[in-house]
Structure formats: structure tokens, C-alpha cells
Automatic annotation (TrEMBL):
InterPro entries: CCDC90-like. Keywords: Coiled coil, Membrane, Transmembrane, Transmembrane helix. This is DUF1640 domain-containing protein. Its main location: membrane. Pfam families: CCDC90-like (PF07798). PANTHER family: PROTEIN FMP32, MITOCHONDRIAL (PTHR14360:SF1). One of its GO terms (cellular component) is membrane. It is found in: Membrane. The chain crosses the membrane at residues 87-110.
């Protein structure tokens, strides 16, 4: 992993040349070093390579999702076919029941006449 080099001696020297006192220059340098350290640690935390998805990962997930969709589609087609068959059985059954009732009524009427 890459390391950030921060020359604190050069930083203090430049601050001193700019008019800062020695304690001020050292305090600013220490704060700058801490800020860099925090920023680097945060960047390491935010940009972990193990958390990134590659194209290969995405292709695998897409393929997996497509297979799940196809499975749901085939289950749905099966359920629709079963429902259609059951509906046909009910319609035929109700039709036969109507024919039986109508026939019974006709025979009843015919036997009284």
C-alpha cells in the first residue's frame, strides 16, 4: 500500500521562515500531520477494494437474477394452467348440473300433464 510522506522538518522550517514562532510552527505541523493521518485512514475505510464489485461480479448477479425471474415465470405459467383447468372443470360441472336440473324439471312437468 502506498505511504504518504510528510516532511515535518521542512514544514516547520517554511512556517518559521514565514514568520511563525517555533511553538506555533510545531503546533501547526503536528495538526497538519494528524489531519493527513485521519484523511488517509478515512480514505482506507471508504475505499476498501474488497467492497467493490467488478464487471464479473455484476454479470454473475445479473445471470442469477435472470434465472430467478425465469423460475418465477415458469411457476406463474404452471399456476395459470392449473387455474384454467380448474375453471374449466367448474364450468363443465355447473353446466351438467344445470342440464340435470332442467331435465328433472321437464320430466316432472311432463309427468303431471
Amino acid at each position: 500500500m502506498a505511504t504518504i510522506t510528510f516532511d515535518t522538518h521542512e514544514f516547520v522550517k517554511r512556517l518559521r521562515e514565514s514568520g511563525f514562532s517555533e511553538p506555533q510552527a510545531e503546533a501547526i505541523t503536528d495538526l497538519q500531520r494528524q489531519a493527513i493521518s485521519v484523511a488517509v485512514d478515512q480514505a482506507k475505510q471508504d475505499w476498501r477494494p474488497d467492497g467493490l464489485a467488478t464487471n464479473k461480479d455484476m454479470d454473475a448477479r445479473i445471470k442469477e437474477t435472470e434465472l430467478k425471474i425465469e423460475l418465477v415465470r415458469s411457476d406463474l405459467k404452471r399456476d395459470i394452467a392449473e387455474t384454467k383447468a380448474e375453471l374449466i372443470r367448474w364450468v363443465v360441472g355447473v353446466g351438467l348440473l344445470q342440464i340435470t336440473i332442467i331435465t328433472a324439471l321437464i320430466l316432472k312437468i311432463a309427468s303431471h300433464a
